[in-house]
Each structure stands twice: as structure tokens, then as C-alpha cells.
């Protein structure tokens, strides 16, 4: 070894290095016989002690065992925390991107501290979605109303509006603006509130509780029937000389009593409950059938398509209900006729033909595609922002 020309330190035999390392560890352990290793797991802590009566290899094995346990528990605790953060993030992401049928827009976190904010968010989004929809589709709705009330063709109804002039085009927008914004705010907000209430206080299947929540929300919306009543009167050209604004229409109806405000309540109840059940129940499955969205713009398009298809289908299905409602609410004073009596009268007036009963349904179909597409897309978009 003295002849080593490279000048490097000669390598020691392997057994000598192992023995040297063993002696070093033994001396360190003997210098600190009661070293405490604190291991944390979540919020609990456990203390692992090295016994001072162990010596030599026994001390070394005990030290290595405690060191191994500490490292494993530390890594397990870190993994557990990361998994919890991933679950919370996934639940928030799923609630933003929309889920399946009868989906709730609320997060999966503990709602005890955020229930008020979450509930008000649905009311606000529904209100803004309705406002946007009314501002865009009111002229189309007015043409449709003339067809429902008088059985006119589309061309004749448009010609009637042209004769009324541009000043009267948005005449009567205040009642539907007040009624529709409040109605949709209640529709989305109460659906979420009733769903969480029934889910927490009953053991019924979720499909049943969601359906019941939709019916209850639709029934509560019927409280705003007076706004639909005044809207009908203001859109009817026969009453143009009687009413100049919404306040005057309410004032005239007050003479006939509170019941006059709720003329046409039955067809509204028959329409609201079942249509809500179908809307909230089919919204998720229809969206799942569409191509997967990867951005906010594609989500917006999918929400528009989903809401538009549902609105068109439900608008066509419940079109006769709206025809009967318009006829009942166009009357001021006089006898309160039943839903069946008015329906039979309209059926006879239109030559007992189903196609005549659905006159104007094609325009309602296109209006519903636009209207409910705007409502659903705006609602979901605002829900993601808030």
C-alpha cells in the first residue's frame, strides 16, 4: 500500500467500515439514552421512547425501529392531508361544472356555515337569468299571446303589433318582468331549499325528494298569479283603452276583490308542478348526452342547448294549459268558469281539431328554445362565477 503512486487514500476493508459505523452509532446512542421522537398524525401526537436499558445492537435496533415508525407516520399523515384537499377540490369542481339529473348546485362541504350564502346565490342567479330572458324575448311572447287568445296566424299577429306601433311593442313588460324574475328566483332557489330540507328530514329516495321539491317550488310560484293576470290584460288589444299601465290594471281589479287577481289559477298549478319535475329531472341526463365540455364557452353552449330543448318540449306539452289560462284571464268580472268548461268552449270554437288547439305552438317552440336556452345558460354561467 505504500507503493500507491496515485496519492489516493487506500480503501479500507468492508468489514472494517461496517464495524466503525456500528461503534459510532453505539456511542451516539449511549450519549443520549432517553431520546424522544414525537410523531404527529393529524392532530394527535404519540411519543416513542428509546429504552435506556438497551445496549449495543439492541439500542441500535430500537432506534432504527422508532425512526422508521416516525418516518412512515409522517408520510402517511401528509398523504392523508393531500387526499382530503383533493376531495374538497373535486367536489367544488363537480358542483361548478354541473352534475347529473336532479343535480344540486351546492358544494359537498359542510353547509352549516355557508347555507345562507349558497341559498341566496341560487335566488340571485335565477333572477338575473329571467331578466335577461324577458328583455330579449318579450316581443316574440306578445305575438304568441295574440295567437293563443284569438287563434290568429303568425302573419296576422305580427301585423296587429305593427298597427299598435313601436311605442306599444314593450307595453305590458313590467308585469312579466316582475313576475318572471321573481318566479324564476323562487323556482331555482326554492328547489334547492326544499331539496336539502327534504333530504335532511326524510329517508325517502333522492328521486322522490327531488321531485317533491320541484312540485313544491312550482306550487309556491303560483302565488305570483296576479302578475300573469295583469300581463294578460295589458297584452290584449281590447283593453288598450282601459289600462295605460300596470298600476292602473291592479287598481281596476281591486274593485272585484282578491279572487279576481287569481283568475286562471288552476291551469297555472297544473302547468308549474309537472313542468318543474321534468325540467329539473331531465336537465342533467340531457347535458350528459351532449359532447363533453372542456371550457367555459363549451359549457355555455351545452347549457343553452340543454335548456332550449327542455323548454321547447315542455312548452309544446303544456301549450293547451296556457291557451286555457289566457282565455280565463282575459275576462274581467263575471262568472268564474272552471278549467274544463273553458277548455270545452275553446275546443268547440276551434272545430274540435287538435291542430287548431295548438295554433301558435310552432312559434312557442322557437321562442322556448331561445327563452329557456338563455335562462339555463345564464343561470349556470352566473352560478359558476359566484
From TrEMBL:
<keyword id="KW-0472">Membrane</keyword>
<dbReference type="GO" id="GO:1990549">
    <property type="term" value="P:mitochondrial NAD transmembrane transport"/>
</dbReference>
<feature type="repeat" description="Solcar">
    <location>
        <begin position="302"/>
        <end position="385"/>
    </location>
</feature>
<dbReference type="GO" id="GO:0051724">
    <property type="term" value="F:NAD transmembrane transporter activity"/>
</dbReference>
<keyword id="KW-1133">Transmembrane helix</keyword>
<comment type="similarity">
    <text>Belongs to the mitochondrial carrier (TC 2.A.29) family.</text>
</comment>
<dbReference type="InterPro" id="IPR052465">
    <property type="entry name" value="Mito_NAD+_Carrier"/>
</dbReference>
<dbReference type="InterPro" id="IPR018108">
    <property type="entry name" value="MCP_transmembrane"/>
</dbReference>
<feature type="region of interest" description="Disordered">
    <location>
        <begin position="95"/>
        <end position="114"/>
    </location>
</feature>
<keyword id="KW-0496">Mitochondrion</keyword>
<keyword id="KW-0677">Repeat</keyword>
<feature type="repeat" description="Solcar">
    <location>
        <begin position="117"/>
        <end position="197"/>
    </location>
</feature>
<protein>
    <submittedName>
        <fullName>Solute carrier family 25 member 51</fullName>
    </submittedName>
</protein>
<keyword id="KW-0812">Transmembrane</keyword>
<dbReference type="InterPro" id="IPR023395">
    <property type="entry name" value="MCP_dom_sf"/>
</dbReference>
<keyword id="KW-0813">Transport</keyword>
<feature type="repeat" description="Solcar">
    <location>
        <begin position="205"/>
        <end position="289"/>
    </location>
</feature>
<dbReference type="Pfam" id="PF00153">
    <property type="entry name" value="Mito_carr"/>
</dbReference>
<dbReference type="GO" id="GO:0005743">
    <property type="term" value="C:mitochondrial inner membrane"/>
</dbReference>
<keyword id="KW-0999">Mitochondrion inner membrane</keyword>
<dbReference type="GO" id="GO:0005739">
    <property type="term" value="C:mitochondrion"/>
</dbReference>
Amino acid at each position: 500500500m505504500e507503493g500507491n503512486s496515485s496519492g489516493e487514500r487506500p480503501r479500507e476493508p468492508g468489514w472494517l467500515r461496517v464495524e466503525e459505523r456500528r461503534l459510532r452509532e453505539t456511542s451516539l446512542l449511549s450519549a443520549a439514552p432517553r431520546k424522544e421522537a414525537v410523531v404527529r398524525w393529524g392532530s394527535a401526537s404519540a411519543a416513542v421512547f428509546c429504552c435506556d436499558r438497551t445496549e449495543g445492537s439492541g439500542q441500535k435496533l430500537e432506534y432504527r425501529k422508532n425512526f422508521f415508525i416516525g418516518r412512515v407516520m409522517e408520510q402517511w399523515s401528509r398523504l392523508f392531508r393531500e387526499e382530503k384537499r383533493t376531495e374538497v377540490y373535486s367536489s367544488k369542481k363537480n358542483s361548478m361544472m354541473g352534475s347529473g339529473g336532479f343535480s344540486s348546485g351546492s358544494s359537498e362541504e359542510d353547509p352549516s356555515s355557508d347555507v345562507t350564502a349558497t341559498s341566496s346565490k341560487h335566488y340571485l342567479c335565477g333572477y338575473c337569468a329571467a331578466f335577461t330572458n324577458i328583455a330579449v324575448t318579450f316581443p316574440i311572447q306578445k305575438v304568441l299571446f295574440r295567437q293563443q287568445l284569438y287563434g290568429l296566424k303568425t302573419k296576422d299577429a305580427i301585423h296587429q303589433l305593427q298597427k299598435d306601433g313601436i311605442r306599444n311593442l314593450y307595453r305590458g313588460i313590467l308585469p312579466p318582468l316582475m313576475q318572471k324574475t321573481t318566479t324564476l328566483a323562487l323556482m331555482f332557489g326554492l328547489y334547492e331549499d326544499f331539496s336539502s330540507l327534504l333530504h335532511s328530514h326524510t329517508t325517502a329516495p333522492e328521486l322522490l325528494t327531488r321531485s317533491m321539491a320541484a312540485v313544491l317550488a312550482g306550487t309556491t310560484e303560483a302565488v305570483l298569479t296576479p302578475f300573469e293576470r295583469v300581463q294578460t290584460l295589458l297584452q290584449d288589444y281590447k283593453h288598450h283603452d282601459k289600462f295605460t299601465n300596470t298600476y292602473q290594471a291592479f287598481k281596476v281589479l281591486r274593485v272585484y276583490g282578491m279572487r279576481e287577481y287569481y283568475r286562471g289559477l288552476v291551469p297555472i298549478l297544473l302547468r308549474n308542478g309537472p313542468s318543474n319535475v321534468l325540467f329539473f329531472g331531465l336537465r342533467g341526463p340531457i347535458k350528459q348526452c351532449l359532447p363533453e365540455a372542456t371550457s367555459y364557452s363549451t359549457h355555455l353552449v351545452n347549457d343553452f342547448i340543454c335548456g332550449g330543448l327542455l323548454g321547447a318540449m315542455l312548452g309544446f306539452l303544456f301549450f293547451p294549459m296556457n291557451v286555457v289560462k289566457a282565455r280565463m284571464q282575459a275576462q274581467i268580472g263575471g262568472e268564474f268558469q272552471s278549467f274544463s268548461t273553458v277548455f270545452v268552449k275553446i275546443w268547440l270554437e276551434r272545430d274540435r281539431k287538435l291542430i287548431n288547439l295548438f295554433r301558435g305552438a310552432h312559434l312557442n317552440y322557437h321562442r322556448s328554445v331561445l327563452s329557456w336556452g338563455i335562462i339555463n345558460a345564464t343561470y349556470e354561467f352566473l352560478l359558476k362565477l359566484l
